[in-house]
Amino acid sequence: MPKLPFDAVVEAHGATVLRVCRAVLGPVDADDAWSETFLAALKAYPALPADANVQAWLVTIAHRKAVDVVRATARRATPTSELPDTAPAPAADDPDPDLADCVARLAPKQRQVVAYHYLAGLPYADVATLVGGSAAAARRAGADGIAALRTSYPGLNATTGAPR
Amino acid sequence: MTIDDDLTRDHLVGCLTFAHPATADHLEALRTRLAAAAQAAGTLDVAYRTVDTPVGPLLLAATEQGLVRVAYAREDHDAVLQALSVRISPRILRSSVRLEETTRELEEYFDGRRHSFDVALDWRLSAGFRREVLHHLPEITYGATASYAAVAALTGSPKAVRAVGTACATNPLPVVVPCHRVVRADGALGGYLGGVDAKRTLLALEAAA
User: Fold this and answer.
1) Which residues of A touch B61 (CB under 8 A)?
2) How many Å apart are CA B6 and CA A118, to the nearest integer?
């Protein structure tokens, strides 16, 4: 199958990558991370194998760009290479910041795993490659993250977690 | 992912989308910003947009060198973009950054105020004799027509009438490179890659202006 025009890639994955960036970084820095991600992806796109998993490739780039954004922010503030404990405050015009706030309050690794596994659909093995540690550890972080979200945001229980 | 994961994902995406709508407007603004950054970085190999015209929506595509493709809707714009991706580069973004002048000149043309186009053209999608034929087409005066045989004579190959027809049928830059002014010797319109109705519309527009 011939490679799609890059514009079709943006069309297909732009919204998902933005959700991932927002979950990992919060809404303020997410736009920068999204832009950096797709700019880097555009540059590298001709060399991407035609059968590659494009979404996983984009999320990998987004992860690196998110780390860059955090480092740049940290250089301006207190020195740390870790993701912040809480993401920046949601935008003022946010209609319902609750879940985004809850995601922002997750431990950094949980937040990343929830974003990469649950929002972007990466298998835990791939998530572990990105965030470090084993696939089993990533799975635990994801389960803990979702459990924490279910506690802090009861709305998430509405259709999930119930016996079927 | 497991079925449970899928359900959680769907619900999480639903709640987060509600909390932070990745609205069409917001994504559109990000895409505009991306195209500008790519243009600045030199990685925007093909920029494209569509414009509404009296002959239907036209797809316009430009490389750094100039306008490289004009396509009618009946050519299937998605298929045209896919072909550009293969022939030129997959680094394609929707953006008007390089197409403002072309858009303006087309507006003037369809208003009857412009008789020839001044934008830079990238001829890479046409080669050999076909390209030579296309280079001669702007010599046909606005509002006039020429037969396939007359165009063959212009190229210095008077017997290449059929090849002139092929060159016109595969013109990557219709409207701007006026293959619509080439008609049959008996006065019939002949074929047109944008459809005979489009050819009739363009010739009527030029005759009236």
Assistant:
1) none
2) 8
